[in-house]
Amino acid sequence: MTEKTETAPGWLAPEELESVRGQMPILYVDAVPVRVDETGVVTRVGLLLRIASDGTVSRALVSGRVLLHERIRDALMRHLEKDLGPVALPRIPVSPQPFTVAEYFPAPGVTPYHDPRQHAVSLAYIVPVAGDCRPRQDALDLVWFTPEEAASPMVQQDMPGGQGVLLKQALAHVGCLP
Predict the structure, then answer these.
(1) CA-CA distance, 123 to 73, in Å (whole number)?
(2) What does the alpha-carbon distance between residue 111 and residue 113 come to, in Å, rounded to a whole number?
């Protein structure tokens, strides 16, 4: 009999995760990092620059799984810190409410959101950040765009899996798009 030592509670081993992904939806959070002015108007939108496993370069939102027994607020903080650095200073409300729920399917075309690995349900948030953002983990860079630039076709084409659609929904939600 072999013993498993659990070093990160809530994480599944890769083979277990693969099995679960084939049997049920996985819960995620997506976060759109923004800079706001003194009146709360969004002035900039932060997008990560990433290299996918196939070598393609893309722009992305902050995103990640929610762990077993983890509060949504804690998952948001963990992923924001992981991708933006420990001094990004995200301002998550006491009672965070998603601006939408995005449902990713492995088969393209079911919804605007596509993830070839799994069926995933993601709670999507707009999160103001006030600190110094320095990308970490698998993010190469963080670029701040005006809302108009972020909604442009040039930026949107660099956002796979429907994240561009999600970004446009976020911008519309805060009144930056008609």
Answers:
(1) 11
(2) 5
Provide the H-helix boundaries in the chain: 14-21, 72-84, 147-150, 153-156, 163-173
Please give the radius of gyration of the chain, using alpha carbons only, rounded to the nearest integer: 17
CA distance 136 to 85: 6
d(CA 52, CA 70): 27
Q: Which pLDDT value is given to residue 80?
A: 96
pLDDT, tens digit, 9 for 90 and up, residues 38-81: 999 999 999 999 987 788 889 999 999 999 899 999 999 999 99
pTM (predicted TM-score): 0.87
Q: What are phi and psi of 168, to 5 degrees?
A: -65, -35
Give me the residues of the chain with pLDDT under 50, please: 1-6
Please give the DSSP secondary-structure letter assigned to residue 113.
-
- Among residues of the chain, what percentage have pLDDT more than 90? 74
Backbone angles phi, psi at 99, to 5 degrees: -80, -20
